[in-house]
Amino acid sequence: MHIRKFDFDYSRRNFMEKTAKGILTAGVLTPLWPLIAHSADITKAYPDELLSIEGYTKGKIKTGDLITADNVELVKNLLDPVAYRQVKEMGRRIRIVASTRDVTRMYPHEYLEATLRNKGKAKLDQDGNVVTTDGKPWIGGNPFPEGTSANEVFANLTLCWGRHDNSVYAVRDWEIGPDGDVSYQYDFVWVEENTVARVGAGGPYLKGLEDKLRFQSVFFTSPADVKGTSYLNTWHYDQRKFPDLVGYLPAFKRVRKFPTNQRFEPLVAGMALYLSDAWAAGDPMLTWGNYKIVGRGPFLGAVSENWYGDHANWERPVHGGPKGQTFFETQMELCPEVIVVEAEPVGYSRAPVSKKRVWIDVRNMMYVAYVTYDRRGEIWKQFEPQYSLYEKGGARVLDGKNTAWSWTGVHCHDIQSNRMTRFVQAKTVAGGVSSGYNQAGLYEKYLTEQAMQRLGT
């Protein structure tokens, strides 16, 4: 009898053993990051069962197939619990695409180059903040591509959300009520500017702002009753400090300061999205605590082939739910290895959230699913991002000299009220603002109190 060294359960046993022993080295057959540094091809790090859905399901599901209520049990362990319910009970469909083996397709080019160049130069200081080995603010890329603790893994999410030096996201949003109707439709713009950990030609820091981490604003451009509503977050580099939060509300006609620890409230009426939800790391990292790794293994993630550049305004078909409007058409692939991290909101005494659970793809250390739990320990909300290189057929978007990589759409589902916030990164939104990356002049245009006043009026 021939005994296979890497039988179907070998990977599962490997992941369980590494989780139990606290070993975080990514890869099953060989460490992942030396392969990425050499050729960017992950094939030799994993057995076949983790590199294709055919291998994982023994041919029962194939690339190109749809996951529906009829076959979702075959991949139940590869979905977060809310996504499973969406497919099983609410008519959601998910199309399977080939697993990405070339990790250059999972990063902005300059960010990956910085991750490789600066590997091994980061540490957590005595306060838990990320610094270089000589104690300076971080210099760009993922600080811990081979994280050795839950805090290090989560730091990769916190230090640079969008993985560009700056980003303008033109966002078209639909709010779906429990009856399946569109209750609100909003256009807004989300702007990010990192002040440290930059990877462009100007160096890692914006001069004089090394004590900050980022500026981030959001302003609404449609409909008329919320047009001008805007918020500005100024993040400190010290992750123990709350951001400074100011906003402009048209009814008050002035910029005012808001309590920054109230980060678990809708931005506007009907929306399930909170500031705390952004990138699964919307709060300073050290205002959460008790980080721990609770699992690892394969997972289905929407990490490729999700840009609809051939559609009007980059929007996409919808389906499912009571009126066929609840879910975006979405492509998912078998991610060979994710790390599952839990954390608790230790800095928020009145937080309605008791903990969050985040699934993080080890290939680029970006989250692929995020679930929050209420104070009773019941599942409350799911936040599911979709990503892609911005190229399809003859259409292509650049972030400078290279093809852009970014998020393309998001489901934010309050499973208790059954309200869905779903939005896309659109080409342009009301007000004439367009999506783009690594642009000059964003600070003066969007990221000051004067800009809030100007945008509001």
From TrEMBL:
Superkingdom, taxonomy of origin: Bacteria
InterPro entries in alphabetical order: DUF1329
Protein name: DUF1329 domain-containing protein
Organism: Aromatoleum toluolicum
Lineage, uppermost ranks: Bacteria, Pseudomonadati, Pseudomonadota, Betaproteobacteria, Rhodocyclales
